[in-house]
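ugh ok fine here u go
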Amino acid sequence: MNPVGVSVQRIDGVAKVTGEAVYTDDLFLPGMLYGRVLRSPHPHARIRHVDVARARALRGVRAVLSGADVPGARYGTIPDEQGLATDKVRFVGDEVAAVAAVDPETAAEALDLIAVDYEPLPALLTPEAAMAEGAPLLHADKPGNISRVVSMHFGDVERGFAEADHVLTHTFETQVVNHCAIEPHAVVASWEASGKLTVWSSSQTPFLMQRTLAEVLGLPLHRVRVIKPKVGGAFGGKREMMGPDFAAACLSRATGRPVKIANDREEEFAATRQRHALRVTLTTGVRRDGTLVAKDCHAVMDNGAYNGRGPDILGSCPGYLTLLYRIAHVRFHGLLVYTNTAPGSAFRGFGNPQIRFADDSQMDIIAEALGLSPVEIRLRNARAAGDVTPNRCVITSCGLRETLERAAERSGFHEKWRRLPRGRGIGVACGHHTSGFKSLMEHDASSAAVRINDDGTIHVASGGADVGQGMDTVLAQIAAGEIGVDLEQVMMTTADTETTPFDLGSYGSRGTFIAGNAVRLASAEARRKLLAVAADLLEADPGDLETGDGRVWVRGSPRRAVTIAEAARASLHSARGEPLMGEAWYNPPSERLDRETGMGNVSPAYSFATQIAEVEVDETTGAVRVLRVTAALDGGVAINPAGVEGQLEGSVVMGIGQALMEGFVMRQGVMLNPSMLDYKVPQTHDAPEVETIIVEVTDPGGPFGAKGVGEFALVPTLAAVANAIYDAVGVRITSLPITREKMLAALREAERGGGRP
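structure:
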């Protein structure tokens, strides 16, 4: 049976549920030391001196390093960050020094013995404070504390506003949230006497980490090997090299022994990457029939102390306003502002959830002003296959309309909207995302090698990084489906920079489409060689042969067959001794994003989704409960439908967390809720009933017609919940999270103003 399109058990499932799967923190190498990182207690300060003498003298300590002891090269999208700070600290949690000791307790004690002389500087904790006249600079080369200005213009917005019957302006705000992956960041580094560095890291981009480590440490690329063990969730937060990766490498070089550093949960909250807070002001021109004409967007993004992927995230936001709904004229002006807070960076959706919360909330406001239903206005403006956006994105396949219609029907939207009892409401929002994103490099390529063993099993080597989302299973299904074997016959080796082919990693929902196409092409090449050998054995033409169920047979004569194992053995043990192998790479026909103009078809395909949320609001307490979410998505052909459903359900729950409860509680730059007890994420009882609808629209370029689904299912949730709350009680909350306090304040304000409550 062809496993493509069939719900299958993950190939790593048994190992994970039995505890056999090895994660980075499970690794113990001979002679391994334990590392810890000293972090700044100040949001902004100059480092006058770091005294490590007492720490070095502590029994059991093998190395103590400060910024003066390690390479000071800067890294990042626009390089501005050091592995250990040398001149200033810029947020509470910034890395200042690192120790390695014989056990974790000694390493922690050594941190307390390091004396740092700080000169505190004014802390700039909001973009407004950072941009104020006379504010001190976080980075001397960035006037006004502005890392990047993004100004992009598609079409003629002023002409569009002149042609519109209505022009509406609204402001929306989203908050900083943490990835909350089950597995905190962890790394083991081993610097061999030969000068070779091997790093095991919970990374979703091993090849990019290899390059960054080589650059900052001044090593040739071939002297750095990065291995990705199992990863317990990433969501973008493990996309970059982090301070502990750098510190572990330097400590290993200093001691000649392997060093492990694993964040505790407080460090994971306070000192890793976060989702950017974004303030968006949208001015939209629309005709009286609901047709969108023009949109002007002003955005201020809180970058935190360092760039991370911030410049690219802000640069992606203009495109998010053009791709979901048809609109001819779009103008975007955005500021990426440094603040003395933890750095923002990549997070599931890459800025898209923030923009969609604003845009799809305003869509409901516009619909109400025009007397249209929320579904009707979206259908009127929905993109379709064949569309080309103002910034040149090409829609090769699109099931947006189908997701809207089917979600509305299944949820009973038309029967419930504005008809539910007071305190109950229903809301709709849509979303989209890429299947790869050509921004980081000139290419967005992946490569793979496939070998047919002489026992009929298949070995696939791919640089793709499974970070818990089930990508290894999808790649194995693709190889099995292309060659014609059962899934159990496929073995995977992935994400090791020394033993697997190159891949950029897991981001941009690129795994299924980009790595999947590479695996399919390599499998097709191995199959071609298989058919050539089988043709000789069967005295047939290769074009007349078919494969499946581990066999090769002559079309129309299924009994005239050989097993794949017999053909592989015949080739390997022939006079030529040729193994049946296929190698391939896939670089999609997308375009690199022009960072100045925003032009470029950055992805080979785009996925679409609709979510309809039904909520209950307690007007006495302000509590909001999401009762049910109908989630329909067009991710092309589902290679593993069960995996797609899992992505949908997980995305919905994650989106509910940002919509209703997640957020940092800060005081003078210090996070006051850095624990899973105090930082509120959805619990089991918060998870709603989720009905998933897979709309299969075959994409012509995807492997077996598939597209990416890992990120975009989160994108509509925020606005769908907010729109449902408005339907329930008639107040619109435009800033996230929608807490009880905000709900009660809005209800009281509406009562005073004579509004619906």
